Structures are given as C-alpha cells and as structure tokens.
Amino acid sequence: MAHAIAMDEPGGPEVLRYRDIPTPIPGHAEVLVRPHAIGVNFIDIYRRQGVYPVSLPHIPGMEGAGEVVARGEGVTGLSIGDRVAFCDAASAYATDVVVAAETAMPVPENMDIDIAGALPLQGITAHYLVNSTFPLEPGHTALIHAGAGGVGLLLIQLAKMRGARVITTVSTPEKEALARVAGADHVIGYDNFDVVARDLTDGIGVDVVFDGVGKATFDRSLNSLRSRGMLVLFGAASGPVDPFDLQRLNSGGSLFITRPSMGHYLQTPEERAWRWNELVEAVQSGRLDVRIGGRYPLAEAARAQEDLAARKTTGKLLLKP
C-alpha cells in the first residue's frame, strides 16, 4: 500500500486529502520511483482549482527526485537503486510514482536529493527561457518578474551566466536581498515598474520580459519593452491574462509575445539531457544556487500550496514523503 494526496473535485486547498492508494505497478518502459523530495508548483494549483481540467480523482504533482524501486518490461539503462529526477510525471504527490523511463534524469551520487528534487521543473523552465525562447546574449537587458521565486532566482543566475543585464521585480526587502545575491543588476518594486525599467534603459525599454505573474503585470510588461522586444509569458501566478487586442503589439512597437510550455522544449531525449546536464553541472560547480524555501510533510500539501499561492515564500517548496 502506498500513500498519496488526492482530490475528488476541483476547489480550494481543502479538497486535497491524504489517503491510502494501491502501490502503482510500472508498465512497459516505465519505472517506479520512491521520491525523497517532491516539488510544489503553480501548475499543481491550477489543476486543483480546475483552471486546467483533469480527470478525477486526481493526484497532483509532476516533479521530484528519488530512488528506482521497480522496473517494467522494456526498461534499459536504469537499475533498481538508481537515483533519478523527473519533471513531467503524473501523480507525483505520492510515496510511489510511476515515471516513463526515457524521462527519468540521472542524479549524481554526490548531489543532495532535495536539490535534485527542487531543480527539474523550475530549472529546466529557466534554462529553456534564456537559451531557447529568447536566447540572451551580452548587451541584452532582461526584466524578470518575481525575482525571489523559484524560477526567478534561477532565471537571474542563468541570465547573468549568458552575459545579460538583469532588472527584477520583488515585493519585500527580504526578497530584494535574495535577488541581489542571485546577481540582479537592478532590483525594483512592482509599482510603476514599466516606468522604472524605461528609466534604467535611457527610455529605450528592455529587450525581453520574462513574466510568470500574468494578469497583474501583463500590460505594464508590454509597456516595458523596446521596439521589437519580446514578452515571454510563462506563468499566471496572479491569474490568467484577459484577452487583448493584437493591435496593442503594433502600437507598442511591433512587439512579440509568446506563451511557452516546458513540454515543447523537451521534445527529444537529447534536448532533455542537454538541459538537465547543464543544470546539474552548474549546481555542482557552484555557479548555480538552488534555494529551498520550505519543506512540508506530504500530508500537509494543502498548506504548501496555500503558502505558494499567497506568495509568502521564496525559492522552491518541497513535500517530504
């Protein structure tokens, strides 16, 4: 028998309940992973709320790291006892998780398992944003919202590695301190951030805005861009963006906007290995710091989601089975 957090209907955090479930059995080309650390992400909240419809009953979660405890038929390259991380599994809020073998990413023996559990989804997101969605180069200026969040702290560091100038928004002095340690060149508040961003770029505007906040920042993010700049809308922590008139892109200076999704940037095993291996190397070399902002017992997943949604936290939140 295994344990999991499950929901029978969409709603608030109270719909998440800790329950016994049959131990999953891995199918063809699948492994069973016993996670030691499970990531908490906004997509888990969107699914709980019904913003992203799911089949019910539903066990949330996509991400974690742990040990392979069983293998299905057709699995090659993975053995019982191997340590792996994953970022696109189903039903990860559990003591046993089925993972497609080809998506399991190796965790070095000398890497802390909590760091490995905190890195996959947000790390790969940050990696594809600065390397593929808008490949940053020296001379670029990027505005990164929520600079002390899990993605934000990683984005700042990866953007600086690529030589970009970074402006980031935060909401508290504590978060400002974290963003500065991560390497941000300018840390500003959300009030009139578009005006401040233009002042910091001599009235020109930034090359790109990485916006995971959504509704509350969207229009001013567009205002922050230079002519032919790009808004990369990769999340909606404040709610989904309302429909808008595409003419707004013309009047703003022939602007670009994209709404990327991680799955479209993990289309081949080679692409997945490239992103994961670069992140692991950066962590192990000390160039990339992964901040864990809180650890919660698996049974307290509702509280973890509440804290994340209230934006009370910094860095990554983990569930511990």
Spans of at least 5 consecutive residues whose pLDDT stays below 50 are: none
- The H-and-E topology, N to C, reads as EEEHEEEEHHEHEHEHEHEHEHEHE
* Portion in strands: 15-25%
Q: CATH homologous superfamily of the largest domain?
A: Medium-chain alcohol dehydrogenases, catalytic domain
Radius of gyration: 20 Å
CATH fold-level name of the largest domain: Quinone Oxidoreductase, Chain A, domain 1
**Mean pLDDT across every amino acid position:** 96
CATH architecture of the largest domain: Alpha-Beta Complex
Q: Helicity, in percent?
A: 25-40%
Write the layout of secondary structure elements.
Elements: E1 2-6, E2 17-21, E3 30-40, H1 42-49, E4 64-71, E5 83-86, E6 97-100, E7 105-106, H2 113-118, H3 120-133, E8 141-144, H4 150-161, E9 165-169, H5 173-182, E10 186-188, H6 193-200, E11 206-211, H7 218-223, E12 225-233, H8 247-251, E13 256-258, H9 269-284, E14 292-297, H10 301-309, E15 316-320
Parallel strand pairs: 8-9, 8-11, 9-10, 11-12, 12-13, 14-15
Antiparallel strand pairs: 1-2, 3-4, 3-6, 3-15, 4-5, 5-7
Domain Enoyl reductase (ER): 11-319
Pfam families: ADH_N, ADH_zinc_N
GO molecular function: mRNA 3'-UTR AU-rich region binding; NADPH binding; quinone reductase (NADPH) activity; zinc ion binding
